[in-house]
Write a structure and sequence with these properties.
The complex is a heterodimer of chains A (120) and B (134). In chain A, β3 and β4 form a beta hairpin. Helices cover 52% and strands 17% of the residues of chain A. Chain A has seven helices and four strands, in the order βαβααββαααα. The mean pLDDT of chain B is 87. Classes of the chains: A alpha+beta (120), B mainly alpha (134). At the A-B interface, β4, α4 and α5 of A face α3 and β1 of B. β4 of chain A pairs antiparallel with β1 of chain B, so a sheet runs across the interface.
């Protein structure tokens, strides 16, 4: 795997801030950011369920593997030079349920978090 | 030469001998680890190894030097032995701690390096067709 496409929610300040942070990190796998439900997303992945990508972060690898929600977050960590070991740690069977719960909670409340943190 | 001075000299000789022994052990055996971490780049491995051992010697000899002063008079051979056992024991514990810290560093570096070539941490949810860019 050489590249992954990250389908993010362009209307969420937290996601945009995360995107800026990610852009600066050194990567082992190239990350391409495409707003979810955009024309480009539909053109690149014609068979993907695009209604679903609006609900949570989605990552599509160049081999067509689709990672949704918490799995997508883990894949993004895996792509980063400094945090790859964390992706393995958080994906361990003992930690994975907690990882999923925390990530889902952040995802579901992303607009509230954005407002509370004063991100625009 | 008083018993006090003898105690100091024995302390210095024993502590230095242990420090050098541990340093050489780390240097010799750490090299194999580092060559693996740097994918066979021996020059880089040797360089990092040397820098690590340098730090180890500085900290260890620094401790040996700081812990030299006894603070009380040693008049009999028995007192000298007792003082020595405490001082050398402390040096050995510090060396042990330094040694495990070094091992931790090596294993962390190695894990980072092997992680680099490992696949995704999880299975994908599904597969989709990817339209190739024109």
């Amino acid at each position: 795997m050489l590249a992954m496409t990250v389908l993010y929610d362009p209307e969420c300040g937290l996601c945009r801030r995360a995107h800026e942070w990610l852009a600066e990190q050194s990567k082992l796998v190239e990350l391409k950011f495409v707003p979810c439900e955009s024309d480009e997303a539909r053109r690149r992945f014609p068979q993907l369920n695009h209604d679903l990508t609006k609900k949570d972060l989605t990552v599509v690898a160049d081999d067509g593997s689709v990672y949704f929600g918490p799995k997508a977050w883990l894949m993004v960590l895996w792509a980063l030079t400094r945090y790859r070991d964390w992706s393995y740690r958080l994906a361990q069977p003992e930690l994975l349920p907690t990882t999923k719960r925390v990530v889902s909670m952040i995802s579901q409340h992303r607009y509230q978090i954005t407002r509370m943190a004063g991100l625009r | 030469m008083t018993i006090g001075i003898t105690t100091y000299i024995v302390y210095l000789v024993v502590s230095s001998a242990f420090t050098i022994w541990v340093g050489r052990t780390i240097y010799k055996n750490g090299r194999v680890f580092l060559i693996d971490v740097f994918h066979g780049n021996e020059t880089l491995a040797d360089s990092v190894n040397h820098l690590l051992v340098c730090g180890f010697y500085l900290i260890s000899f620094g401790y040996v030097s700081l812990a030299l002063t006894l603070g009380y008079e040693v008049t009999t051979a028995q007192e000298g032995m007792e003082a020595l056992s405490i001082k050398v024991g402390m040096v050995l514990l510090v060396l042990g701690a330094m040694h495990f810290f070094n091992l931790l560093l090596f294993s962390r570096m190695r894990r980072r390096a092997t992680d680099r070539h490992n696949g995704p941490p999880i299975e994908p949810d599904s597969f989709t067709h990817v339209q190739q860019e024109a």
